[in-house]
Design goal:
TIM Barrel, globular, eight-stranded parallel β-barrel, 13 helices, about 350 residues, two-stranded antiparallel sheet, about 15% strand
């Protein structure tokens, strides 16, 4: 017998996205975060003992044991719900933040709410709801807040994904009114609002426009990791999408450019192609407050279940711990003062940004 979600196009797309993200093509050749062009200077006399290191951070008013966010990936199907609960439970054990995938499926099918309900397994860590800008415009700020609160989330990730939508045959094509809708939502949600890209990056100028409209947390989600244009191409995207597989602002350029432009006030999350603790340290050194990861956790969970996913995330935290000690830093914030060498491609990006 066909289950109701099997006939739902959003639900089918959600599960297809999970399958496609396991394929190597979603990280297209030629896409770079440019974190490989950031070199932190080694400190041979760190004058630190590892137990002195303090990786703690705060996000959405709650403490974290490390500045890490497991990014929103899925929801809306039984498979998505199982993954959400598994990764949220890991976030709780590790003391890091957890994000849910787009709640669009929940809007279209209220019975899907359970696939986004993770408070039972993650009662204390920050949890982010998620909705796209097109849905937020249609709903209005009050209903978006209700959507967030209905699952007990601490905040809401509002995702901007114009490139992905343009690559989808059935995607949105009208992006007018987004900035003012974000401003209205910022008035209602305040510091609970996180505006994020989905792998194409946010330029310093756009980041500044968001901050001017009251946004206090931005996930820059740069290019160099999962390409959602490539995911949609694999799913049968529109014919003109292929040249845009590597489209976007590299993660390193997005982070450093944004921090230089907006100063120290907004919380910046670095995501997009961060695969290990050293890359996380480089992103923090460039000005990020937190780092976000998705694909490594998804693939590790597929290969090794919850134990594999937890091990992959612990390895990122462990690598960050090593980077701190080897640069003589007791806290992640001190990484910003570490001397660094930057390569020519990153320097060229920063000249334009």
């Amino acid at each position: 017998m066909t289950k109701p979600q099997d006939a739902d196009p959003t639900a089918r797309r959600k599960d297809a996205h999970l399958d496609l993200c396991l394929r190597p093509e979603v990280e297209p050749e030629g896409a770079r975060t440019l974190l490989d062009e950031v070199h932190l200077i080694h400190n041979a006399l760190p004058e630190l003992a590892e137990p002195e290191l303090d990786l703690s951070a705060r996000f959405l008013g709650k403490p974290l044991r490390a500045p890490l966010l497991i990014l929103g990936m899925t929801g809306g199907t039984p498979r998505g719900g199982e993954l959400n609960r598994a990764l949220a439970a890991i976030a709780e054990r590790l003391g890091v933040a957890f994000g849910l995938g787009s709640q669009r499926a929940m809007l279209e099918r209220p019975s899907a709410r359970d696939t986004y309900s993770v408070r039972e397994v993650a009662p204390t860590v920050p949890v982010l709801g998620n909705i796209g800008i097109a849905q937020a415009i249609a709903l209005g700020p009050g209903r978006v807040r209700d959507l967030m609160e209905s699952i007990g989330a601490d905040g809401l990730a509002l995702h901007l994904n114009a490139a992905q939508e343009m690559a989808q045959p059935e995607g949105d094509r009208d992006f007018r009114g987004a900035l003012e809708a974000i401003a209205r939502l910022a008035d209602v949600l305040g510091p609970k609002l996180v505006v994020k890209e989905t792998g194409c990056g946010i330029s310093p100028a756009t980041c500044a426009r968001l901050v001017e409209r009251g946004v206090s947390c931005v996930d820059l989600s740069g290019a160099g990791g999962t390409s959602w244009v490539s995911v949609e191409i694999l799913r049968g995207g529109r014919p003109g999408a292929q040249p845009f597989a590597t489209w976007g602002i590299p993660t390193a350029a997005a982070v450093l450019g944004a921090r230089r432009r907006v100063g120290g006030a907004p919380t910046l999350i670095a995501s997009g192609g961060i695969r290990d603790g050293l890359q996380a340290a480089k992103a923090l050194a460039l000005g990020a407050d937190l780092v976000g990861v998705a694909l490594p956790a998804l693939r590790a969970h597929e290969d090794g279940g919850s134990e594999g996913a937890q091990a992959s995330l612990m390895a990122i935290v462990d690598g960050l711990r090593m980077a701190l000690l080897l640069t003589g830093c007791r806290t992640p914030a001190q990484l910003r003062d570490v001397p660094r060498v930057m390569g020519p491609d990153l320097a060229r990006w920063l000249e334009v940004l």
